[in-house]
Amino acid sequence: MVVVVLVLVAAGYGYFRYQWGKVSSAACSTCVAAANGAPYNVLLIGSDSRAGETAAEAQQFGNATNAGGQRSDTIKIVHVNPAAGTASTLSIPRDTYVTISGLPSDTQLSTQNKINASFAGGPDALIQTIQNTFGIPINHYIEISFFGLQDAVNALGGVSMDFPYPVRDHNRDTGVNESGLNVPQAGCQVLNGSEALALSRSRYFEYYKNGEWYQDGSSDLGRIERQNLIISAALNKAKGTYNPLRLNSLLTSVVHDFSKDNGLSPNDLFALAERYHAFSGSQLQSLTMPTAPAVTSGGSDVEVVQPDAASQMISQFLGGPLAPISTPPLDAYGDPQPLPEAPPTTTTTVAPVTTTPPASKKSTPTTTPAQSDIPAFDPRPC
């Protein structure tokens, strides 16, 4: 969204309104209206839908036959505070175990499920689930496809990432490179759209050190971390890109790759442009919901929310108390875990939290690190 705002500044309001009119919009019955000038939250949904893909894209991502339906593979909430000129993101792991709200009456899905399954009911079901589970009001949403990230990075001329080691995406159980990630050399290099997408999708991330391949092992949580780093690199590239032709190309490239609620207007983004035109990736605080791996009684691998740490983090993210919660997150046994009221805090950094999930044959302790504790093997913007 910030990239689009930067395009607006360079390309001019009239051209932006013309392109913005091509974006698919839909009513959002679950979105909450925000007061004028008040902080607000935008849900960014990374959809794995294969609808509308070309033959080449089907070969890269799979097709609607072998990967039908849609799930929210990436769930990020952007908290924008226009008065303070700040912005932050909170990522929710896609395997977080919750009670799903808003599913159609004829659905075959269980309501006790991973949060990404709620997107089968569309954005409204996902938004309602987030609000009912975490007490985070959602004011707008933007849904972007695989192709959106790829096209945006290409239109920017690529993003620069510094790799400490060669990396790849390698599923050791199947021997398959799932996302196509393959960076054979270390150092600062420019990634094109397909390379940036492969890095952002990698769940079997491996790095080559001292003649041996090592696994990241954090799966979706490590992927969230690398997605945040790519976003930071893209913001830096967009901020430093003032060529109107390139920025016009960016806007033209992505208008068909994302959709939004019809309450998000050109005027909203124009106001953001005036306030955030100098915003850089280093200013974006990125948080991840504290969870721990667990296995349900049915044998499903899930992420279980850690209530105390989550309550503290959400309060910090919102800058105030949580909204009322009707369906708290679930533990591995499907029992609700109410989020306690977090004490007032003046700090802007969430300390590392080590927790132990409910007993399970596969459950292991996990640590949710502060954003500054990026693993040494992960690439960084350069």
Structural features:
382 residues, globular, seven-stranded mixed sheet, four-stranded antiparallel sheet, Aminopeptidase, alpha+beta
What is the helix fraction of residues, given as a range? 25-40%
CATH topology heading of the domain at 2-151 and 243-339: Aminopeptidase
**Unreliable runs, pLDDT <50, ≥5 residues?**
347-371
Indicate the CATH architecture of the domain at 2-151 and 243-339.
Answer: 3-Layer(aba) Sandwich
How confident overall, as mean pLDDT? 82
Summarize the structure in short.
With 382 residues, this protein is of the alpha+beta class.
Describe the structure.
This protein has helices at 2-11, 13-20, 55-61, 123-134, 146-155, 193-201, 220-239, 244-254, 266-276, 307-318, and strands at residues 24-26, 40-47, 72-81, 86-91, 97-99, 112-114, 140-144, 159-163, 167-169, 182-183, 187-191, 205-209, 212-215, 258-261, 285-288, 291-295, 301-305, 353-355, 366-368, 380-381. The protein is α+β, with helices and mostly antiparallel strands and 382 residues long. The strands form 6 sheets. A 7-stranded mixed β-sheet has the order 1-14-7-2-3-4-15, sandwiched between helices. It has a 4-stranded antiparallel β-sheet with strand order 10-9-12-13, covered by helices on one side. It has a 3-stranded antiparallel β-sheet with strand order 11-8-20. Strand 3 and strand 4 form a beta hairpin. Helix 1 packs across helix 2, helix 1 runs parallel beside helix 7 and helix 1 (2-11) crosses helix 8.
